[in-house]
Amino acid sequence: MAVFPRRRLAAVALAAATALLVTAGCGGGDEPGDGPVTLTVDVFGQFGYEQLYQEYMTANPGVKIVERGTGTNLDEYSPKLTQWLAAGRGAGDVVAIEEGLLVEYKANPANFVNLLDHGAADLKGNFLEWKWNAGLTADGKQLIGLGTDVGGIAMCYRKDLFQKAGLPTERDEVSKLWPTWPDYIATGEKFVAAKTGASFLDGATNTFNTILLQTAGNSSGYSYYDTSEKLVVDSNPAVRQAYDTTMDIIDSGLSGKYGSWSEEWVSAFKQSKFATIACPAWMTGVIEANAGTDAQGKWDIARVPGNGGNWGGSHLAVPKQSKHQAEAIKLAKFLTSAKGQIGAFKAKGPLPSSPQALDDPAITGATNAYFSGAPVGAIFGTGAKSLKPVYMGPKNQAVRTEVENAVRTVELGQRSPAQGWTDAVTNAKKAAAK
Amino acid sequence: MTVQLDARPPATPATGNPRQSSGRLSRFDTRFSPYLYIAPFFLIFGVFGAYPLAYTFWVSLHDWDLLGADHPFVGAENYTRLLADTDFWHALVNTLGIFVISTVPQLLAALWLANLLNRGLRARTGWRMAVLVPNVTSTAAVAIVFGVLFGREFGMINWLLDLVGMDPIGWKSNRFASWVAISAMVDWRWTGYNALILLAAMQAIPRDLYEAAAIDGANRARQFWSVTVPLLKPTIIFCTIIATIGGLQLFTEPRMFNSGTNPIRGGPLRESQTLTMYMFENAFAPHYNFGYGSAVAWLLFALIAIVAAVNVLILRRLGGDRPQKGAAR
């Protein structure tokens, strides 16, 4: 008889537990109140904000900042952010958006706070004009994000490997080695002939993207999509030209074939397996993190072959789902101010998108000890104001993935250059239609 | 001190209180409380199983941009497009290929291991525990370590191949090699688990069957194939179905095996992209086409059902009615 109540109790407990499980998924979330506010910032790669958070929290005692995602790569970060936005919860109060994805997010602006409604219009002069415009929706009525950095491009190289190969090691002389990409290839052939045990460059895809963005910036101003959002992967001469130059690089045996951002790529940094890497400003932080302290002082930075170019750069946005929009907007404004951009540059090297910051002696005079004291401020900063942006179409990321994978198949010897091109065009069209 | 402790209240016959309500309550109790007891499972299944299943189907009938505000109804269009999508069939072949070259050796090895463990070994429990160890390690950790082992340039496997004078293998850029590498991960993790399940079933086989077989002159191998295997049939079916479900949903291993940019493609030519990865690629980055991804999910569901049914049929055939005959003898 005593068994009975116990069993009934167990049933009730189970039912209660179930009910709890079910409701737990729907509750939670902190209500906005008068107490201290916790702001979550979502980033990827290396934004270099740690010091700035400390400063901001000291100046605003009511705010606590938590950052997520430093060191993750963009391919991990962007799907998560999209899921959070789609689900209506989970995203940080301030989120970083990379330029290639900004177009997709702009197509659905309702997910974000319109910063123009919060006094952002006054800040227009703080940003390079094209960087400001990139944050605006097509109709110009909503500002989704405030610009953080731009991606001026240089060429990072290993002095020790250059010396081993009998090449000059001084950055000015190295820059003179390769005014154009064919010169870069010729230098690479000399390097390979010296048999140092290292490849001349890391892998073809990053170099391909660099050449493409540079060529596109110097000509039409668009890459895979034209400004009317028509896919022009097979008709834009810039794409074909970048592809052909990359094929020459592969053909000359210069590539180490390390898939960019893979574990092998990271190992290759550590084991000094390649001598040069195309280097947008933000890449300096990545190199330092991957190659580690052992390689300190062995790297240096020279001019990129060809003429300038811009790769990457991000915006900070405030999702509408944020419960602390006002505070989040204030923080985003602080982080993207000239002062914030200078702080980030000093920490991890992303090049400011604010003309005031670019003119600041803190930038113009900046050197990077890891890169043998290279004057990074002058190298990346000069010409940053004349950077020509490249327009990105709606499915830019998906199309770029297909084209770069086609480059990769040629690099790995799975496809001939001609087959690779056919694949690139076919798969890009297919991806764009999805 | 042989006092019998009985904390139960003295059993009094339930004649004292013939009130109507008590009777109704107990009738209610016997009739409905069983449902109440099994309700938690069905509640949880409803919330986390049935509802997502139905919702996924609903989504698959729409042109559903993950971020978009409007999701127009398109009927079966996602399915018709999917059936004409070469990448989908490519992923399907990958999935089935990896499934076959991982599951077959895995179950055979598990059977062999279980047979070994069933003998009078020294430190038997220790061995039995040991085979389960790979299973308790995190899948992601296993996949990362194997991904490094199978590296093209810095990997240990290629280094060993080099030692014996063989050319290095592009484990990630050769379709079949990548299947083998991923199967190795799966087998490393799951062989021991299946071995334990088969072992448990083996121990339930009455010893007198073996004695009878031995008297009939059957050697150890003959006993294994004629007594053990037929009697293990239900368990083998169970293991196969579990392996089928796991194998066709394979995600973490191939996903972590491919590092670098867009690992979800499973290599530049989609060498090791499984169906779940293809689903993910479409539903999330870089396409964010939730409707299309949901259609992949539903076809995957159909595929698992078909393969599981085929499994059962084949195994029924294979087993024949040997156990019944044996029992009748």
UniProtKB/TrEMBL annotation, chain A:
It comes from Micromonospora saelicesensis. The keyword Signal applies. This is Cellobiose-binding protein. Keywords: Signal. Coiled coil: none annotated. It comes from the Bacteria. PANTHER family: ARABINOSE-BINDING PROTEIN-RELATED, SUGAR BINDING SECRETED PROTEIN. The keyword Signal applies. Pfam families: SBP_bac_8 (PF13416). The lineage of its organism: Bacteria, Bacillati, Actinomycetota, Actinomycetes, Micromonosporales. Residues 1-24 form the signal peptide.
UniProtKB/TrEMBL annotation, chain B:
It holds the Pfam family BPD_transp_1. It comes from the Bacteria. It is found in: Cell membrane. Keywords: Cell membrane, Membrane, Transmembrane, Transmembrane helix, Transport. CDD domains: TM_PBP2. GO terms for cellular component: plasma membrane. This is Cellobiose ABC transporter membrane protein. It comes from Micromonospora saelicesensis.
